[in-house]
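fwd from M.: "can u put these together and see what the complex looks like"

so here's what she sent:
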Amino acid sequence: MTRAVSEGPGIVERIGGSVDAVGVEQRAAALGTRSIKKEAKLLGLDLAIRCCDLTTLEGADSPGKIAQLASKAIRPAPTDPSIPHVAALCIYPRLVAPAVAALGDSGVAVASVAGGFPSGQAPLDHRLAEIEAAVSDGAGEIDIVISRGALLAGDQDAVYEEVSRAREACGSAHLKVILETGELASYDRIRCASLVAMAAGADFIKTSTGKISLASTHPTAVVMAEAIRDFAEATSRAVGLKVAGGIKTAKEALRYLVIVNETLGEEWLDPDRFRIGASSVLNDILMQIDKQRSGVYSDPDRYTKD
Amino acid sequence: MAAERLAVNKTYKLYLNGGFPRSESGRSYEITGPDGFLANAVRASRKDVRDAVTAARAASSKWAGLTAYNRGQILYRVAEMMEARSAELVDEVSRAEGIEEAGRQVDEAIDSWVWYAGWTDKIAQVMGSLNPVAGPYFNLTAPEPIGVAGIIAPGESSLAGVVARLAPALCAGNAVVVLASESHPLPAIALSECFATADVPPGVANVLTGHRDELAPVLAAHLDVDALDVTGVGEDKLGEIEEAAAGNVKRVIRAGPGRSPYEVTAFMEMKTVWHPKGA
Amino acid sequence: MPRWDYAPAPEATDIVTVKDTYGLFIGGEEVEPLSGDYFKTINPATEEVLAAIPEAGLEDIEAAVAAARKAAGTWAAIAPADRAKYLFRIARAMQERQRELAVLETMNGGKPIKESRDIDVPLAGAHFFYYAGWADKLEFAFPGRNAEPLGVCAQVIPWNFPLLMLAWKIAPALATGNTVVLKPAETTPLTALLFAQICHQAGLPAGVVNIVTGAGETGAALVNHPGVDKVAFTGSTEVGKQIQRSLAGSGKHLSLELGGKAANIVFADAPLDQAVEGIVNGIFFNQGHVCCAGSRLLLQESIATRVVSKLKRRLSTLRLGDPLDKNTDIGAINSRAQLDKIKELVGVGVDEGAELYQAPCELPEHGFWFPPTVFTGVSQSHRIAQEEIFGPVLSVLTFRTEDEAVEKANNTPYGLSAGVWTDKGSRILWMADRLKAGVVWANTFNRFDPASPFGGFKESGFGREGGRHGLEPYVRLT
C-alpha cells in the first residue's frame, strides 16, 4: 500500500457525476441476491476475517479489555490454526500504547480513531494534535471523521483542507476518512464527500463511525465504491473502502464483499484495499465457517468472547 | 324593371396546405344533385394524395405543439365560421342530398365542433392516468396525437358525416387528409372554406375530392400515414383497404356510436413515462 | 488470494414434474390432439428433450374455438364479482406455485432463474391480481359507455416471456368477460400447460381458457378461424403485418404488440453508473430477447469514451451459464434458429465495419449461447442499427445535441420504447414529449408493472396491455 499523495481539489470537479437513488438501491439489492455457496463461501469468510478491523470504541475500554481483544484479533479461533488473524484492532487513541504492546509483531495493525471522533467537532488544531499523538504512540492507521456540517453547508473546501491537514499529521500512518454517510443524507453528497476525501489524500474512505443509528448501507457502499473506481481511473491511485457500523453477521460481510468484488474488482479483495469495521461479526463468521465445513449448525458458546 | 341578376357560380377546388388548388392533373368530374348539374368538382390524383400527406406531415408537429387551449379555440372558431355561413351550408347540403331538413344536419355539424372544441384540454385528464406501480416510480400515461390521419369520409350525410370523423381527429391534435364523399363532395369543400378563415394552420386539414376507388387505396397504403378512418369505406372495399393499411401497421378506425371522447382517443396514442422517485 | 469465483448455486428442479407427453387444454380437459401429431420441446441450455407437445391441427382449433364459444355466453353473463373471484383465485394459485413456475420457465426457455423467479412469475401473478379487481368495476373504466365483451379471443404469444405474456393476454380478456384460445410459442409451451392445471385448480368454468400448442401454422389457423371475434398477437412486426392483412375486412378486432429498436439516450449530465446499469439491463435482460430492449445506445459525444469503458468493465462481471444457477445473469439463447439469426446479424455488423467487443466468457459446450456483445462506431446507416436482433447485442451511436438525439431515436419504423438519462428534469420532459414511443423510461429502463400501460407507436403495434387502458382492446363500447 503506497502512501497517499493529495491530488488537489480540482480533481473533484473533473470526476464529478451524480447518483440516481433508485438506480443505486436497485443495483445494491440485485447484488444482494448473489448466492455464495461452498468453496466460494469459505473463501469469502476467510477474506472477511482478514479484512476485519476488530473494533472497540466504548467509554469503558481499559488496557485489560484491549489486551483481551488483541488476543482475539491475533487468534480469532484459538483451536483452529487455519483461521487467519484480523487486519487491525481499532481503538481510541488513549489505548494505542497498550494495544501496540499486546499485538507485538503479530501482523495485526493498530488503528486509532482520532480527530475528535466521533463528532469531529473539536477545533482543528486539537484534532490534528490527537492524530499526531496516536501516531507517535505507534498507531499505523488513523480513522478520522469529516465535518459533515461543512459539507452540508456547501463548504467542500473546508473538508478538503481538514483532510489534507490530517493527511500531513498522519506522517507515514494510513489515513481512513469517515464520511458518516448517515448524516450526509443523499447519495450525491456521499459521492461528493468521497471524491473530496480522496482528492485530499485519504488512503481509505469509510462509511460510518458506528455511533449514529444510520450506519453503513449496501447502496452507500456501492456509491463509495463507484467513486473509488472513478478516482482510480482518473488518477491511477487505488483508495481503499471501509464499511462500518451495524455489521453483525457473516451474511452481511459477504454482501459487502460481493459489492466490492463486482464494483471494484478482485484487486480490492484484500486487506490493503477493503476493511470491515465491526465489534461482533467475528464469531458469526467462525460459526458459518464451521457450518460450511461440517454441515452442522453450531452453538455460540463454542466461540471465544473477549 | 331590371332583369334578374345572373348568379356568380363558385368553382369548387381542393383544400390543400391551406390553399385551394385544382388538381395537379387538371381533371374534374361532374357533380349532380336531385335537380341536376351542380358543379364540376376536382378529380384529385394520386399525386394530390401524396402532396396532401406531405402537407399534413409538415403541419402535424406544429398543430400538436399548440396548447390544448389554443387548439380548442381554433376548433370553436370553425363552429363560429360555420354558424356565420349556415345559410350557405344548408343550401349546399340540401342541393347535394335533396333533403328538406338540411338545417338539422348543419346544426349537428356545428354543434359537433363546439362539443369537440371543449374536449381538447380535457382529453388527457379524462383518458390519461397516473399509474400506481409497485415500486419507487412516478408513472404517467397520457394520450398524444398519432400524427397524420387519413379519413375516408362517409358517402352519405355529406356535411355532418365528415365532421363526425374530422372533428375528433383534429381535436386529438392530428393533421388529416380527408377523402370527401365521392357523390356529394361539395359541402366538404364549403367546410374547408370555413377552416381557411378559422385560423386552422395550413396543412392541418386537407380535403380531397375525386374517385374513391382511385384515391382510397393510395391513402390507405401510404407509409407516412399513421392512422386510417374507414368509416366511409363500403363493405365490398373494406378488405382491400384494410389490407393496404397493414403495410405500416396503421391504426384502422371506425366510428363508434355518437360523439364521445373515445372517438378522440381512437386517433391518439397512449404514451407511458416512468421516472424514479429518489432523493 | 485465488480468484473469488462464486460456486455453482443451482436451483433444485425436483419441484417440477414434467410429463413425457402433454395434451391440449380444451373445454376444461386435457385432450389428445385430433391431428395425432406431436413435436419435442427442449431445454435450450442443454438441448435435452423435455416432453412431447401436441401440434394442434385445424380440427383441434375447431374444437378449441367451439369450446370457447360455448363458454362465452355463460362467462359473460355470470356476476362480474364472481369473474373477479375466479381471477383472484388464479392469481393466488400462481403465487402459491411460483417456484415451480419459475423453474419450469427457466428449463423450457433458457432465461436465468433469477429473472423468472424475481420478475416473470411474480409479475404474471400480479397481472391477474390487478385485472381481477377490474372485472366488477368496468362501468368506472369507461365512463358514459357500456363495456361489452367481444366474445372469443384468439391469442398468440411469443417465447421470450412465456408465462408473463400469457398473463398479459388472458387476464384482461377474462376480466372483461371474454373467453380465450391461447397458443403459446412453439419453443416454450410448458408453463402455459402448467397454467392450464392452475385454471383447473381454480375451478374456472370449462372452455373459458383453452390452450392449443403448435407452431406458426397452428397460430395462423387460430387467428383466421371465422369463429374468432378478436385477435391479440405479440411477436415480430413481420408476422403482425401478415395477421393484419389476413384479418382485413373480417370485422375481427385486433391488437398487436410487435418489434422494436429502442434508443437508450444518455446525456453527459446523467448519473453514469446507474445509466450503465440501465444500459446493461436494457439490452442484456433476458439475453436481449425483449421487444422493448434498448438495443441502440445513443451517447452524447463528450462522455462516449467514458461510458463505453464503464460498460465494458461492467460486462466483465456478467455471469453467463446455467440458467438454473441463481448467480447467472445471462442465460441461454431460446432456440437454434434465434441463435443463427443473432450470429448472422452480428456478422453483418462486422462486415459493415462496426467495432465488435464481446465480454470474455466461456460458452457452455451444449445448448445455445451467445456472449454479451457491444458494437461501437455504429451509425444509423448500419443494418445493426435498423433491424431488431432480439439478442444480447448492443449498437452504440453518438450524438451532440438534444435535437439530434430525438431525430436519431425516432429514425426507425418502430416505436415501442425509449430511454433517456439526464439529471435535468426539464430536458427529460422535453425529450419524453418528442420521442415516438409507447413507453419512455427516464433514468431507468425495462420496468414493467400490471398498472402501467405498455404498447407501441408506429410499426411496433397498436393497443395497450396493462393498466386501465389494457381493458380497451377487449371490449365493445356501446
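replying to her w this: The interface with chain C takes residues 126, 129, 131-135, 137, 139, 141, 144, 146, 226, 235, 238-243, 245-249, 251, 256-257, 260-262, 269-276 of chain B (CB under 8 Å).
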